[in-house]
TrEMBL record, chains A, B:
This is GntR family transcriptional regulator. The keyword Hydrolase does not apply. Pfam families: FCD, GntR. InterPro entries: GntR_C, TF_FadR/GntR_C, Tscrpt_reg_HTH_GntR, WH-like_DNA-bd_sf, WH_DNA-bd_sf. Keywords: DNA-binding, Transcription, Transcription regulation. Residues 12-79 form the HTH gntR-type domain. The keyword Transcription applies.
DNA sequence: TAAGTTGTAATTGTCGACAATTATCGCTTG
DNA sequence: CAAGCGATAATTGTCGACAATTACAACTTA
C-alpha cells in the first residue's frame, strides 16, 4: 500500500519516523486535540532523545498540527468549528486556482490517467454502496491529482504538505461521513471534463462550487447538531 | 518603527533572534539565493551552538526560505522566474479570497482605519513622487490590512507567515520597483470601497485583478529583459 | 583515458547534561 | 478567607561530544 501523501518522500532519519507516527496519532485522535505535549515523557515513550523528538515536533508544527510557545511548550491544535470552516475557505480559493492551473498545465497523459482513475472509482463497489471509501481515499486521490496537475510547486506545498493533514484530522475527529458520495462523484466528473477541455475558468468555478458544497454541508450538520443537543 | 510583520511576536529565545537575522540576510541577498548553508560555519559565525542554529533553520524552512534534505544539508531557496510567477498565482487566489472574507468580516472600525491609512498614503510625498515607498512598505501595509481583516487564521498564517517573506525576497533580489505606484493606489482605493460596501464578490474580483496586473507587469518585464539581453 | 572503487575527511543526525525560564505549591499578610 | 509573594520542582532552551551518513579524492583497473 503506497503512501497517500504525494509530497512525502521516504523517511530516513528517526526523527522522520517519529514525525510520521505522531502525525497519525494526532490525526486519529490518539493524542487528543488540545492536549499539552510533554517532551520528556514522549521522548521516554518513544525511546529517543529530546533533541530528536523536538526535530519531529518542528515538522508537526510545519503542518500546523501542533503549536509552540517559547518557554512554555507544545499543544496539539484544537479542532474548532471555526477552524474547520476557515480551512474550507482556504481550500475553496487554493484548490479552485489549482484546478484552473491544472486545466492549463496538465499533460494529456495526466488527464488520461485521471480519467481512468475516475472510471475505476465509478465501478468501485464502495461507491455503489455509497459508503466510506469514496469519501475518504478516493476523494483525496482525486483532489491530489488536480493539485499536482497544477504544476505549481507553491500550491502543491501548501495544499499537500500542510492543509492535507488538517483536513484528515478534522475528518477523523468530527467523524464526517456525509451522504455526498454519489453527488461528489458527479461533480468530480464534471471537473475532469472541464480540465480535459482546457477550460480553466469553468474548471475553477466547478471546483469552488464543489468545495463550497462540502462546506455548506458541514455548516448544516453543525447547525443541526447544535439545535438538537441543546 | 514597529515591526512590519503582524504575525511576528516579540522574539525571546536566541534561536528567534538568529532566525530574524538570517531571514533578513536571505531576503536581502546577503546569503545568496541557492547557496549551501554550512551548519558548523554559520554556528561559529553567530557564536552559537549547532542545536540553536538548527532551530533557527527549522523556522526558515517553515517560511520556505531554505530547503533541507536529510543527511545532505540546507540550501537557500533559488529565485526563479517560475517560482515568482507561482507565488503570484497563489497570491491571486488567497488574497482574492481574503478580500472577499474581509468584506464580510471586517469590523466598521477596521474599515475606518484602513480608509484613513489610504488617505495618508494619498498625501504622502513618496506617492506623489511616484517612487519607492508606496511600492514597498505602503503596498505591504495595505495588503496586510486586508488579510488580517479576513479574520481567517489559516489565511493569515499562510499569507503573512510564509508567502510574505518570499514576496519580499523576490522584490529585493529581482529589484522590482515598477511604475505601477499610482495605478496600484487607485486599485487599492476601489478595493476599499468594495469592502466598505460589504460587496464580497466584487472585492474578490478587484483584488484578483490587482494582483494579476502585477503578475502581468512582471511577465512583460521578464520577456523584455530576455529579448534585450539575448 | 575514463569509469569504478575504496579510504579519508567533512557534514549531518542523535545523544545526554546543564542553564534559563516557567509553573506549582505552600506560606505570609491584609 | 482571599490575594499576593516566595521557594521549589518541573519544563524548555542551549550546549558540546559522539555516531552515522555523505562527499571528495586518490588509486586501481579495464
Amino acid at each position: 500500500m503506497a503512501s497517500n501523501n504525494p509530497t512525502q518522500q521516504e523517511a530516513i532519519t528517526t526523527a522522520d519516523k517519529i514525525f510520521q507516527k505522531m502525525q497519525i496519532a494526532i490525526v486519529e485522535g490518539d493524542i487528543p486535540s488540545g492536549s499539552k505535549i510533554s517532551e520528556p515523557e514522549l521522548a521516554k515513550q518513544f525511546q529517543i532523545s529530546r533533541s530528536t523528538l523536538r526535530e519531529a515536533l518542528n515538522r508537526l508544527e510545519k503542518c500546523h498540527l501542533i503549536e509552540r510557545k517559547a518557554n512554555v511548550g507544545s499543544r496539539v491544535i484544537e479542532c474548532t468549528v471555526k477552524g474547520l470552516l476557515d480551512i474550507y475557505v482556504v481550500r475553496e480559493a487554493l484548490e479552485g486556482m489549482a484546478c484552473r492551473q491544472a486545466a492549463l498545465n496538465m499533460t494529456d497523459e495526466e488527464i488520461v490517467d485521471m480519467k481512468s482513475m475516475l472510471a475505476q472509482h465509478a465501478t468501485s463497489k464502495d461507491l455503489q454502496d455509497g459508503v466510506s471509501y469514496y469519501q475518504e481515499q478516493g476523494d483525496l486521490d482525486f483532489h491530489y491529482r488536480v493539485i499536482l496537475g497544477s504544476h505549481n510547486q507553491e500550491l502543491i506545498n501548501i495544499l499537500c504538505g500542510q492543509l492535507y493533514h488538517l483536513v484528515r484530522m478534522y475528518r477523523c475527529q468530527f467523524g464526517m461521513n456525509s451522504p455526498r458520495a454519489s453527488k461528489a462523484f458527479t461533480e468530480h466528473s464534471r471537473i475532469v471534463e472541464a480540465i480535459a477541455e482546457r477550460d480553466g475558468e469553468l474548471a475553477e468555478i466547478l471546483m469552488r462550487r464543489h468545495i463550497a458544497a462540502s462546506r455548506k454541508n458541514i455548516e448544516n450538520k453543525i447547525a443541526l447538531k447544535d439545535s438538537s443537543s441543546v
